[in-house]
Amino acid sequence: MRIKDYLLISVTTMLAYSCGSEATQPNDNPTTNATPVDTIIKEPELVENDLETLRFRLDMLVANHGAAPVSMLMKLSADDKDVFHPDYVNDVSNVGLYKDDFSTALNFGVYKTDLIYDLIHHHLDDGLNARNAANTLADALWEEHIYSDGDIEKYRAAQDNLEDLESLLFQDYEKTEKYLISHDQFEIATLTMIGSLIESMYFTSKAIEEFGMTESKYDLLINEKHQLDEFVELLAFFKGNEKDAALLEGLMEVEDAYGKINGKEDLTDEVIKHIDTAVFALRGKIVSNNV
After folding, report:
1. Is residue 121 part of a domain?
2. Tens digits of residue pLDDT in 123-180
3. Would residue 17 count as lying in a domain?
4. Domain residue limits at 176
5. Is residue 95 assigned to a domain?
6. How many domains in the chain?
């Protein structure tokens, strides 16, 4: 099943719920073989104004945070002197684990971030493997090819110029979210950005674990918390999928690990340890398809 049909139903459910409309609620115990129409809503009703509001909100997320993993990984690379760990990224052989649209969308975001990690550390071949994995997942979700073979030569040419590489990664990273939003695939856009955020948070936590805290890492943790809050609020609207609920629970556990922070002074060693533990647990569930 192409995810677009499911997403229209999910968004419709969200809109009916948020506007106070009467909508048929999903069965408490849907069978795995039930169709989305059976388990989510009986009579979909699209409210165009609210749909445009959702589109605007996602556009703002992309504008404000869409390429944040690029900035985060650039800072981590500068902080920790380009130390590269090939075992940090999601193994490309895991692609076969992602059989449903939900895990496919999440891990598409994961591999997009792994591509950034590889290229920033000048591991072009590893980056191309991550890109191929992302392409495989993308092909399972939509028909149009967003990546082109010409991108590979651009990556190769930019390897020795950090500014060119950063610019290329920004453009490359954002174009998938912009494509998905423009085609009304709102939930898949949300899931890919969440997968990317959790993967970049994972890299931050691994860097803290190995190299300790720096000023820029305090800033990264606070920035990641702001993004996390926005995605928790956004994901809460998608009511029709029990996996959405499980993912939301995992994100809220990371939120709870932060607690109420007002600044760097609240990020104590104990709080950071709780954050790292929660991030590692959620990331492990995402890449192993156990959300």
Report:
1. yes
2. 999 999 999 999 999 999 887 766 777 788 888 888 888 888 888 888 887 888 888 8
3. no
4. 53-287
5. yes
6. 1
